[in-house]
Known about the structure:
It contains nine helices and 16 strands. With about 260 residues, the protein is α/β, with parallel strands linked by helices.
Amino acid sequence: MKVVILAGGFGTRLSEITGLTPKPMVEVGGKPILWHIMKTYSSFGYDEFVILLGYKGHVIKEYFANYFLHHSDIEINLKDNSIEILNSPSESWKITLVDTGKKTMTGGRIKRIENLIGDAPFFLTYGDGVADVNIEDLYNSHCSSGGSITMTSVQPEGRFGSVESLPDGKVTKFLEKPRGDNSWINGGYFVCEPKVFKYINDGDATIFEQEPLQQMADDGELFTYKHTGFWKCMDTLKDKKDLNEMCLKNCAPWITWDI
Length: 259
C-alpha cells in the first residue's frame, strides 16, 4: 500500500521558520518531521510514499535527491570532482514527489493523484504530526468497518490546567494539562479506499476536511479509529521545542523503531 502525505501547506503559524523551509522539513531531533512520519509507516513495512508538494516543494525534492549526502559520511576529491559515499543509510523507501500546486487545498491535492493511486486502498496523513499509532491495528480496524475511509481520532492535550473543588473551595483534584473535554478530533493517519476520490468535486479549492469528510459521514462511509496513545501536531514554535526536548531526553513516544 502507498502512503500519501500532505506536505504542501504554508505553515503560517511557524512563519519564523517556514519563511525559509516548508513545515514538513522543520527538524525534530536533527531530522525533518516528515522523516519521522515516514519512519513510523516504514517500521510497519510500508515503504512506498507519495508526497504531495506545494509551498517550497523544491526543498523536499532536494532533500530526498541528496539523501545520501545529508545522512552519510562522504569523501570529496576536488582533483577529479568525484564524491564517494563512505557509509549509507539503509532506508528501503520508494518516494514519488508530486507538485500539486502552491495554493491548492488538501482535497485538491489528493484529487490530483487519483490516477497514480488507481484502484488500491492507501494510507493518508499530514506532514506535521507524529504519533505512536499502531498502523496495523488501524488498517485492520478499517478493513473490519467496511467503510470507504477510516480516520484516526485523538484527544489533544489541554492548553490549561484543570481544577476540581468542593463548594467550600477545597481543591480535590488538579491536572496540569488534561486531555480535551471528552472530545475527539481528527488526528490524521487515515486509511482510504479509492471511492474517496468521488467525494472530491470542487477541484483545487476542495478542503478535504470539510465537504468530502462530512458527505462521507452522511453516507455512512466514514469510520474512526480511536487512538489513546501519544499524538502531537507541530503547529507552533513551542510544539517544535517540546518535540525536540523529547528527542534529547530519549523519551520520544512516537519513535518505536530501532535507532
